[in-house]
Specification:
This protein is an alpha/beta fold. It contains 10 helices and 9 strands. Helices cover 42% and strands 18% of the residues.
Length: 288
């Protein structure tokens, strides 16, 4: 049975992700108390369910401290489990809650009907979920439209299980560093195809741009350094029971240099686990 746990920040798109999995044939349960997770697994296994997705988040705040241990025990019993954590910047969350006028689950302070400020509630939620986030596959939804998020979730979870899921992501520094990145590499100092008129409208996935960058010794040197770092430390991360690692590579526009290096490194390091490629800025254009 394929079991997926959707968790993360309130307002980050968990409902969208759960609906995407339901459309993909998963049996979905929202807001399940952590104490019932093992019982649900037993029932679904008895019915020979193939795909089950569960959403657990800060609405079960009192039970969250014990959830990481529960997940560890579930894995030790041989159950395949993917934990997907949706994260978003505080600024984006404040805007989303303001637009929807919904109350944050942690806004109510106590039985005396005292209220927390929205930013205070968001930061408390980050603290309560921090341990769960550390062992999850993190997806930054700050700049994702609903259609893009659905596509990302389906792509991430329809791949074969592996000891390590390695995500390579290109991005533009001018739009901010991805929150889901474990490692960030800045390649803005490399020669930029943007200044070549015939290459400006192309991307790092196009052959003319690749040929231009391959001819630059600095680009090859950067590629070698990043690859060497990852080849040295990825086995240690697997030994430390890390299931997910996201490597973000950024340039000015997220169109040429970072895209080229992500494509190259994803191919070269594919033997280290399941590899997922994201191009944040290019993908956003596709889903407009």
């Amino acid at each position: 049975m394929q079991l997926v746990l959707i968790t993360g920040m309130s307002g980050s798109g968990k409902s969208v992700a759960l609906h995407a999995l339901e459309d993909a044939g998963f049996y979905c349960v929202d807001n399940l108390p952590p104490e019932l997770l093992e019982s649900l697994i037993e029932v679904e296994q008895a019915y020979q369910a193939e795909r089950v997705a569960v959403a657990i988040d800060v609405r079960s705040a009192q039970s969250l401290p014990g959830l990481p241990d529960r997940l560890r025990a579930i894995r030790e019993r041989g159950q395949a489990l993917t934990v997907l954590f949706l994260d978003t910047t505080t600024e984006t969350l404040v805007r989303r809650f303001s637009e929807t006028r919904r109350m944050h689950p942690l806004s109510l302070k106590d039985t005396q009907d005292q209220r927390r400020a929205l930013v205070e509630a968001i930061e408390l939620e980050r603290e309560l979920l921090s341990e769960l986030r550390e062992r999850a596959l993190v997806l930054d939804t700050s700049q994702l439209r609903a259609s893009h998020l659905r596509s990302e979730v389906k792509a991430l979870l329809h791949r074969a299980p592996a000891p390590l899921t390695l995500v390579f992501e290109s991005f533009a520094f001018k739009r901010g560093i991805p929150m889901d990145a474990d490692f960030v590499f800045d390649v803005r100092m490399l020669p930029n195809p943007h200044y070549e008129a015939e290459l400006r409208a192309l991307t790092g996935q196009d052959a003319p741009v690749a040929q231009y960058l391959q001819a630059e010794p600095e680009v090859a040197e950067m590629e070698t350094h990043i690859r060497g770092f990852l080849e040295r430390w990825l086995p240690r991360m697997v030994a430390d029971h890390r299931s997910y690692v996201t490597v973000a590579i950024g340039c000015t526009g997220g169109q040429h240099r970072s895209v080229y290096l992500v494509e190259r490194l994803a191919r070269q390091l594919s033997t280290h686990g399941t590899v997922q490629v994201r191009h944040r800025e290019l993908d956003a254009l596709k889903h407009r």
